[in-house]
Amino acid sequence: MSFLKVIEKYEKFNFEDYFNRVTDEDIKRSIYKNKLNEEDFLNIISPKGEKYLEEMAQKAHEISNRYFGKTVLLYTPLYIANMCVNRCAYCSYNHDNNILRAKLTMEEIEKEAKAIAKEGFKHIILLTGESSKDTPIEYLVDAIKVLKDYFPSITLEVQPLSEEDYKKAIEAGADGLTVYQEVYDREIYKKVHLGGPKRNYNFRLDAPERGAKAGMRNISVSALLGLNDFRREVFLTALHGKYIKDNYPGVDVAFSAPRIRPHAGTFHDIYPVSDKNLVQCILALRLFHNNSVINISTRESASFREKLIPLGVNKMSAGVLTEVGGHCKDTKGKGESQFLISDQSSTEDVKKMIKRLGYQPILKDWERI
Ligand code: SF4
């Protein structure tokens, strides 16, 4: 079994037709159900569902408080390399883009770790471009071994690996995995992934499951909003998470809703996703996945991130730099950024904003044994 079976089920599904048939009664009934099914998700994410954002927001707020209290977990990304063999039309790290490439040494990674740890972070996401040649599992394992002395929780966001390699990363000290499918629609997937191993849709689609089989504690799935109609993409993201939860009950599944940001390159074939659309995505995810973490990154502005906290977001990045080696002066400027961030608030400013809303910023919710 693979999530592929679920994708196949929806390949011929007429979303337009379904959305046209959704009634106000369907939406209201779905919002107030205790346990939403796939049809309910489609009802609340439908264009007509936009009229009911207030009702959805109230329920999402209650659910979040019930499961997580008034807390927001903070983390920061650490870019250790930006070599990439793929040619994704929407990303600055695209192999064809003439940017400054770099890969940190273990010594440099340790310097970055010290600089980040000084800010109080305990949760990091370790990022590279996607290149098994430049950043093979051996390099990743060495990096994790350096970082585990500083951070109790290390999530990998690297090229999709085999189950065996995920096991090696876990043994070294990683506990989380982020693999975004980017776009679940196969035709668009082919169109925007112009070259490199990432063109293998199925291998990427099954990566979260390989991570779960290997023993990853938390797994984050998502689509990159803007590559296709967001309603279909967020629906399939929700189902991908459900598939992992149903088959691997020990895994914490998390969701994001990243929108495309300005980047190097010439890809502009974007499906617009407004702030209102993004709010609808987050509310629908919270109503469908009551006990899952929902993360919002600094792709979004500070003022918008603030508004999303009471709506169900309970994890966010802070102190973000998307360039390789950007945290300490010895390595600053070594490699270029993946994309331009929108929220440039300092970690302290993010903490203050969370407290001002009556929430508690959390820096650690996990201890490695
Ligand atoms: S999105 Fe990932 S795989 Fe694609 S070019 Fe950027 S870094 Fe490489």
Automatic annotation (TrEMBL):
Transmembrane residue ranges: none
Enzyme class: lyase
Keywords noted in UniProt: 4Fe-4S, Iron, Iron-sulfur, Lyase, Metal-binding, S-adenosyl-L-methionine
Keyword Metal-binding: yes
Gene Ontology MF annotations: 2-iminoacetate synthase activity; 4 iron, 4 sulfur cluster binding; iron ion binding
The keyword DNA-binding is annotated on this UniProt entry: no
EC number: 4.1.99.19
Superkingdom assignment: Bacteria
Cofactor section: [4Fe-4S] cluster; [2Fe-2S] cluster
Gene3D superfamilies referenced in this protein's UniProt entry, alphabetically: Aldolase class I
Domain Radical SAM core, residue spans: 70-295
NCBIfam families in alphabetical order: thiH
Name of the molecule in the record: 2-iminoacetate synthase ThiH
Source species of the chain: Clostridium senegalense
Source lineage: Bacteria, Bacillati, Bacillota, Clostridia, Eubacteriales
Name of encoding gene: thiH
